[in-house]
Design brief:
The complex is a heterodimer of chains A (278) and B (110). Chain A has 278 residues and is an all-alpha fold. Helix content of chain A is 84%, strand content 0%. In chain A, helix 1 (4-18) crosses helix 4 (61-70), helix 2 (23-42) crosses helix 3 and helix 8 (190-211) runs antiparallel to helix 9. The longest helix of chain A is centred in the middle third of the chain and has 35 residues, at 148-182. The radius of gyration of chain A is 24 Å and the shape is elongated. The chains are: A mainly alpha (278), B alpha+beta (110).
Chain lengths: 278, 110
């Protein structure tokens, strides 16, 4: 006895193995299949025949994957620059920190690894945030209605993934260093809370990205908000931990947050005005 | 029968034109184009969705999931302001090509 739900479930598995992984895409293709099967059944085919015909019309999972591949992503200059600047910064930072450890011998290699991975992770979020700001600026002066949107979204997701991995690794190095030097993996220091705060945000963003369609507007909001979160996680916890930051530092920090909130508001206003005219 | 190239080139303006009349979903778009062309334009089912996704990424259209009968869901697409601009631009281009061809063919037969 033919079971349509079972057959569709098998087809989804095949599509997944062929590399069509986004649930949104699979749900849409399944919805299409069901519409087509309904139409074939209405014209007199059995459910099994209708399913086979609909699958043949849709194409195999491999064909579908190739069709999606054809829809190529175009480069967006700010995204390419951000990627290279981030790589350059990480290489430079690693070299400087390594020279510091090798020459002075004051820091352990664990602490070196912790600092490099943490800073690289935070810089990745800032690089993504700078793309959000570039997006707002571009929309201010010209239409962003071009094939750059996928490049923006893709680069943002890439930075988020890199940052999540680096912060997890940095946390592990930090815990080992803490055990060696302070006797416990976690001591509750303000500087230990910062990366946890940032990591929570990153995991939340990756979760959102996994289960929803990332529009350029949503990406912009998350990218700029990410800068604020990492700003709080990095400078905020350092300021709390040091308790000796001067007025200048507080002003800089307030300006940093203020500028990002301004960009968020401008980006939102641009989106609203664009939707209102629609 | 239309060539693959011509079908590919006309897909976006056709989708934008259909969506400018109101929101719709993939299967209905395929059927509507087939009906309007007297069965001469038949989009491959698998070709349409990547194009719709690219157009959504471009900010021309937006989508939302709507619950239909029996708890089933369908993804409906609608045109955005940027899509209307893109449609206007594409319409001008197609009008131009069409008028040039018309003039050339008229001259041939005069």
């Amino acid at each position: 006895m033919f079971d349509l739900d079972h057959a569709i479930s098998d087809w989804r598995q095949q599509a997944l193995s062929a590399g069509i992984k986004a649930p949104d895409v699979l749900n849409e293709l399944e919805s299409h299949l069901r519409d087509e099967i309904d139409a074939f059944c209405s014209s007199g085919l059995s459910e099994a025949q209708a399913f086979e015909t609909a699958i043949a019309r849709l194409g195999t999972a491999d064909t579908m994957r190739e069709e999606f591949k054809k829809v190529r992503r175009e480069q967006w200059l700010p995204a390419t620059i951000a990627l290279y600047v981030w790589i350059g910064t990480v290489v430079l930072l690693t070299a400087i920190e390594f020279a510091n450890v090798a020459i002075s011998g004051r820091k352990s290699y664990l602490l070196f690894a912790h600092i490099v991975t943490l800073t690289a992770g935070y810089f990745a979020v800032f690089a993504a945030g700078s793309l959000g700001i570039c997006y707002v600026c571009q929309r201010l002066f010209q239409n962003f209605s071009n094939p750059h949107r996928p490049a923006f979204v893709h680069t943002f997701i890439l930075f988020m993934r890199i940052s999540t991995i680096l912060i997890i690794v940095c946390y592990l190095f930090g815990m080992l260093w803490s055990k060696q030097n302070r006797g416990a993996f976690f001591t509750g220091d303000d500087r230990e809370i910062g990366p946890l705060f940032a990591l929570t945000w990153l995991v939340l963003m990756l979760f959102i990205q996994r289960f929803s369609h990332m529009t350029a507007h949503m990406t912009m909001l998350l990218a700029i908000a990410g800068n604020i979160v990492v700003g709080l996680a990095w400078f905020g916890t350092l300021m709390i931990a040091a308790r000796s930051f001067g007025l200048q530092d507080h002003l800089f920090f307030a300006m940093f947050i203020g500028v990002h909130i301004a960009f968020l508001l401008i980006g939102n206003l641009l989106q609203r005005s664009s939707s209102a005219e629609c | 029968m239309l060539t693959k190239e011509l079908i590919a080139a006309s897909t976006e303006p056709l989708i934008l034109s259909l969506l400018s009349k109101g929101e719709s979903y993939g299967y209905a778009l395929i059927q509507e184009v087939k009906r309007l062309s007297g069965d001469k334009i038949e989009w491959t089912d698998g070709m349409l969705y990547p194009v719709l996704h690219r157009m959504e990424d471009n900010g021309w259209i937006k989508s939302r999931w709507v619950e239909v009968e029996n708890g089933r869901k369908r993804k409906y697409y609608s045109i955005k302001k940027d899509g209307q601009k893109a449609l206007k631009q594409k319409r001008e281009q197609w009008d131009l090509i069409s008028s040039v061809l018309n003039r050339l063919w008229k001259e041939q037969y005069v």
